[in-house]
Amino acid sequence: MNKSSEPNTTQPLIEIFSQLGHPWAVSLILVLGERDSDLGYHEIQDRMISATSRKIADTALSKCLSDLVEAGLVHRAASADSALNGEYALTLAGYETYQHVIRMQRWTQNGFNNRRPMADCSSAC
Q1: pLDDT class for 14, splitting at 50, 70, 90?
Q2: What b/e sequence results for 42-66 when a residue is b if at least 16 CB atoms lie within 10 Å of its CB, and e otherwise?
Q3: Distance CA 5, CA 1 (A)
Q4: Which terminus of the chain has fewer CB atoms gathered within 10 Å of its CB, N or C?
Q5: What are phi and psi for residue 77, nearest 5 degrees?
Q6: Sign, CA torsion 26/91/103/31
Q7: Is residue 1 in some structural domain?
Q8: Rounded CA separation 68/62 (Å)
């Protein structure tokens, strides 16, 4: 099998890191992953402020939620009181991503304190 006919196995990885590259995506996944129940939009916004100490604009939060829903990491259920308000929760794939993010968070907290400065590295990507 030549390279041109092989399936592109890196594409899903690139797509997920593109989603996680959104400025608010990782914080949003952490907020949703810490809950066992669905969260409403305004509750998410409040928790994001608590978690990051920064206010997230409505348009940025809406876009990030929509992108994560489209990527299959977040599920949106219409709210009983209003079709405009939704309730959000991680999907199974989103929860698996959350678990990886938690591991990466621990790794950065532990590993980055002991790593060599970049100037000492003999190679870079």
Answers
A1: confident
A2: eebbebbeeeeeeebeeeebeebbe
A3: 7
A4: C
A5: -115, 135
A6: positive
A7: no
A8: 10
Distance CA 38, CA 59 (A): 20
Domain region containing 51: 19-105
What CATH number is attached to the domain comprising 64? Answer: 1.10.10.10
pLDDT (mean) for 93-119: 80
Give the mean pLDDT of 16-35.
Answer: 86
Asked whether residue 4 is domain-assigned, the answer is: no
**46 within some domain:** yes
Question: Would 84 be classed as within a structural domain?
Answer: yes
Number of domains the chain is built from:
1
Per-residue pLDDT tens digits for 30-65: 999 998 889 999 999 999 999 889 999 999 999 999
- pTM, 2 dp: 0.73
